[in-house]
Amino acid sequence: MASKFSATNAASSPKKLAKPDPLYAQVQRTIAEEILSGRWKRGSQIPGEVEISELFGVSVGTTRRALTNLVSNGFLERRPRLGTIVSERSSQHDLGLLFNYYRLHANGEDLVMSSTRILSMETSEATAQEQEMLKLKPDQKEVTRIKRVRTVDGEPVMHENIVLPIHLFPNLPEVDELPDLLYQFYGAQYGIRIASARESLSAAVANERDCELLAMTDNEAVLVIDTIAFDKTHKPVEWRILRATTEGYRYINEIR
């Protein structure tokens, strides 16, 4: 049986919500941070929507949307007769959480929570490089490209280009319906579980796109993270290139 969640503990020093993001995203990000930090214990029953709304000073509708997204992303679970509890799965072994949260830290080592904004989503024939990286067969050349920017407290810190094979991910939802954490979405919507990923890290000088999206100058350094995600059969299912500012943040990938 799930232990009762302490509203006092949940509300202890609630973080100030950043203004640039929608309220539901701010609530969602703050609760996720509480869970990842261990302040909201796994298996604990959380307060009701009204109580959480009062804690954050938002409407019940805003809280409901934040909690629904957290359930979809695997942070929370809904249990019959128990209500909503913090997921008992270890986030340290959940690749969806690991690759989206555990790698961005402030230089003071504090974990920071990012939110995403989709810039574009388009479908077309794969380039030769995309075909090679995703091991596409001649009849599997269509891909969807998703371009996103990640922000921390409204400030852009990363931008990423995600390439998905159409034959694995057909009929993707509209841009405003895509969740931040895509790995959980792949599993829930398409039955594709990310079992492993191969990352290549390198340094580069900011290009025109970096300067435009991350408010950088053309002589600043960027961190380039090239990631191929694999399913349980070790088939590549996603190719992602992320370019991040190194000003004020560091990338930490801790796998236990």
Descriptive overview:
- There is one protein chain.
- The chain has helices spanning 7-11, 23-37, 49-56, 60-72, 95-101, 128-133, 182-190, 208-214; strands at residues 3-4, 44-45, 76-79, 83-86, 104-106, 115-125, 142-152, 155-165, 196-205, 221-230, 236-245, 249-251.
- It is an alpha+beta fold and 256 residues long.
- The protein folds into 2 domains: 3-89, Winged helix-like DNA-binding domain superfamily/Winged helix DNA-binding domain (Arc Repressor Mutant, subunit A); 93-251, Chorismate lyase (3-Layer(aba) Sandwich), CATH 3.40.1410.
- Mean pLDDT is 80; it is low at 1-20 and 90-102.
Summary of the model, kept short:
By secondary structure, the chain is of the alpha+beta class.
Question: What's the topology here?
Answer:
Elements: E1 3-4, H1 7-11, H2 23-37, E2 44-45, H3 49-56, H4 60-72, E3 76-79, E4 83-86, H5 95-101, E5 104-106, E6 115-125, H6 128-133, E7 142-152, E8 155-165, H7 182-190, E9 196-205, H8 208-214, E10 221-230, E11 236-245, E12 249-251
Parallel strand pairs: 1-2
Antiparallel strand pairs: 3-4, 5-12, 6-7, 7-8, 8-11, 9-10, 10-11
Helix pairs in contact: 2-4, 3-4
- CATH superfamily of the largest domain, by name, is Chorismate lyase-like
Low-confidence stretches: 1-20, 90-102
Largest sheet: 6 strands, antiparallel
Order of helices and strands: EHHEHHEEHEEHEEHEHEEE
- Total separate domains: 2
